[in-house]
């Protein structure tokens, strides 16, 4: 506790020197020992333009996880660090209690809860893929799957009716599932309250396999994973099948889809396709053993019901290809938002274009068209429905439409001006990037969107920043070296634009831009928007770097507004990473650890790792079995070498 108290001073000073708003991510977590915590993280840049992401507090949750209870803990943390005048945006998952928490915080600190709430992108992308795989809890989608493959498949009218009801059901199924205590707490956690709309498969009892088989090929793959997890003999059969079919390749375990790992369905499908030959051999081994033992129906292994047909494998392969962009987007938006070697870094300016790209991806996929990269990282169109019969194509369209429905629903909830503002304040994007995203939509609709966002941004600028006092900058810093190639999302967006416009660049929009001379140079916001986007690869990967090197000098007041939006986190992944560390700390052998000690230790770990405070104990080195040697080296314990030699 003394160590924690000494560290509070430097943390307070760092927060006081924040140049940007202080943004937050917070989330609840329950350990295997059924101990609940609330992780509260801060994201900001300081006066030297260094970006920070630190754990502020990890209080124990002793009451129900209601929105009011969460808001109380967050408000206490805000007051304890004296941050009430620098409150920014909160990036949270889609749990209903988070909405209530934001309303309570808005009432306490006087802000617009809808404007300040940002939805964790990887979380709702995961819910989109699960809606695609499993539909709603209603039986209508199941009926489509049950009759799939029948010679007399339902009529087109019946299919559309059932699909319509199933899609509408996605918006009405609101019961949530609590993750099993058997699930790994060190995985990326999806909270208990937000398992919405679709029956997310967790690790379940084998008695429920019939239920999940109704979800088609992915339900069967899920059941295979359950069987392998619950039977050591079946697991050994799987390993033996791999050794027989590919003796030179490594033996891999099964990748199970669980509700606590984002995009785990794609991982499961990828592993299944990689080991498809071994899976078929495993089923052959099991069937041979059953026949040898008499082949009685009552003794037939239940796992044989999960064997996939040729057409089912085609569905898995097609859906795995459809899910790949979701996996890439989810991982990318979990980034730190700090420029590195990539052209994208998970910054908030990538959020809105990524969602647009995925909507476009599903709209093309339902037409049987995919945009994929070849080995040279060149985008090209490929056909999705080749070598598929009519029923399989129609089934795939059902999956895709369900995914599009869910993603479009979340797209409609992105009401905060911040999503667009981050793109506008990227010096290499500005309004041009949004115009290119919207160029396939009706002109009247996109014009109204732009006018609405322009009015909102102008209001924010005039109310909070236009007359803001500012100090001298800390000096310019040279830009980083230009990055190499664009990342997947940038290449994908560029290829989509070329398809829509018939050229690699849309030069026609330049003539619509008003000349800079027509705009008053006294207004930094108008002056910034009047200039064309910056053509510099280094700043494309590091928009905050441009505001540091150039923008803060030319547009000193506007630079504060820009970085306030650009530093918003796209996901709550940082909080989930802290939960992983907490899970390693709270083990059955440490059952007597007090919860406030756990919270303080995790905060010290975060502050030490960030370089804010150097503890007297090397906390990062005390993990593992060599803790005694570490303590001995730093002089915290003494060992009588002579006595050890005698022993």
Automatic annotation (TrEMBL):
It is found in: Nucleus. GO terms for cellular component: nucleus. Residues 524-607 form the HAT C-terminal dimerisation domain. GO terms for molecular function: protein dimerization activity; zinc ion binding. Coiled coil: none annotated. Keywords: Metal-binding, Nucleus, Zinc, Zinc-finger. The keyword Zinc applies. InterPro entries: HATC_C_dom, RNaseH-like_sf, ZnF_BED_domain_contain. PANTHER family: ZINC FINGER BED DOMAIN-CONTAINING PROTEIN 39, ZINC FINGER BED DOMAIN-CONTAINING PROTEIN 4. This is HAT C-terminal dimerisation domain-containing protein. It comes from Fusarium poae. The lineage of its organism: Eukaryota, Fungi, Dikarya, Ascomycota, Pezizomycotina.
């Amino acid at each position: 506790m003394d160590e924690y108290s000494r560290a509070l001073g430097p943390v307070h000073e760092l927060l006081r020197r924040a140049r940007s708003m202080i943004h937050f991510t917070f989330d609840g977590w329950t350990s295997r020992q059924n101990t609940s915590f609330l992780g509260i993280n801060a994201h900001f840049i300081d006066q030297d333009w260094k970006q920070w992401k630190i754990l502020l507090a990890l209080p124990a949750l002793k009451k129900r996880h209601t929105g009011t209870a969460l808001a109380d803990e967050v408000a206490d943390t805000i007051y304890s660090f004296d941050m009430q005048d620098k409150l920014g945006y909160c990036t949270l998952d889609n749990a209903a209690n988070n909405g209530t928490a934001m309303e309570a915080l808005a009432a306490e600190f006087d802000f617009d809860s809808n404007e300040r709430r940002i939805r964790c992108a990887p979380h709702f992308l995961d819910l989109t893929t699960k809606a695609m795989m499993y539909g709603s809890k209603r039986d209508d989608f199941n009926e489509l799957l049950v009759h799939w493959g029948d010679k007399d498949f339902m009529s087109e009218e019946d299919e559309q009716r059932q699909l319509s009801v199933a899609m509408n059901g996605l918006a009405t199924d609101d019961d949530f599932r609590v993750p099993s205590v058997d699930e790994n707490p060190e995985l990326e956690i999806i909270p208990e309250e937000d398992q919405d709309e679709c029956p997310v498969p967790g690790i379940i009892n084998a008695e429920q396999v019939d239920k999940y088989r109704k979800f088609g090929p992915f339900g069967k793959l899920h059941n295979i994973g359950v069987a392998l997890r619950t039977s050591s003999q079946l697991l050994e059969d799987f390993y033996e099948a791999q050794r027989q079919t590919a003796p030179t390749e490594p033996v891999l375990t099964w990748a199970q889809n669980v509700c606590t790992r984002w995009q785990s369905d794609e991982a499961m499908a990828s592993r299944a396709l990689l080991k498809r030959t071994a899976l078929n051999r495993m089923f052959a081994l099991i069937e041979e053993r059953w026949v040898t033992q008499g082949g009685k129906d009552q003794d037939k292994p239940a796992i044989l019901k999960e064997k996939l047909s040729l057409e089912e494998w085609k569905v898995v392969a097609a859906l795995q290809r459809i899910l790949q962009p979701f996996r890439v987007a989810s991982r990318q938006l979990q980034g730190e938002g700090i420029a590195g070697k990539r052209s994208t870094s998970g910054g908030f300016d990538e959020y809105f274009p990524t969602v647009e790209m995925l909507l476009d991806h599903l709209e093309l996929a339902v037409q049987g068209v995919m945009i994929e990269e070849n080995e040279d990282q060149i985008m090209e169109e490929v056909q999705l429905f080749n070598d598929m019969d009519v029923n399989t194509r129609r089934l795939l369209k059902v999956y895709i439409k369900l995914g599009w429905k869910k993603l479009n629903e979340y797209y409609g909830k992105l009401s905060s001006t911040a999503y667009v503002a981050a793109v506008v304040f990227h010096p290499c994007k500005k309004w041009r990037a949004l115009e290119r995203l919207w160029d396939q939509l009706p002109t009247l609709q996109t014009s109204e969107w732009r006018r609405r966002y322009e009015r909102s941004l102008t209001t924010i600028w005039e109310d909070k920043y236009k007359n803001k006092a500012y100090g001298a900058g800390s000096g310019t810093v040279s830009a980083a070296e230009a990055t190499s190639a664009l990342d997947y999302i940038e290449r994908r967006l560029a290829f989509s634009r070329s398809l829509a416009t018939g050229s690699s660049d849309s030069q026609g929009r330049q003539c619509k831009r008003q000349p800079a001379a027509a705009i008053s140079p006294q207004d930094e916001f108008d002056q910034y928007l009047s200039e064309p986007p910056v053509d510099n690869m280094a700043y494309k990967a590091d928009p905050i770097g441009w505001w540091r090197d150039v923008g803060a000098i030319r547009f000193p007041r506007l630079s504060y507004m820009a970085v306030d939006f650009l530093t918003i986190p796209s996901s709550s992944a940082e909080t989930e990473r802290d939960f992983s560390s907490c899970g390693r700390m709270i083990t059955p052998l440490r059952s007597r650890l007090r919860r406030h000690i756990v919270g303080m230790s995790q905060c010290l770990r975060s502050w030490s790792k960030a370089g804010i405070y150097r503890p007297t104990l090397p906390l990062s080195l005390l993990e593992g079995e060599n803790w005694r040697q570490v303590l001995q080296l730093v002089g915290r314990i003494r060992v009588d070498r002579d006595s050890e030699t005698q022993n």
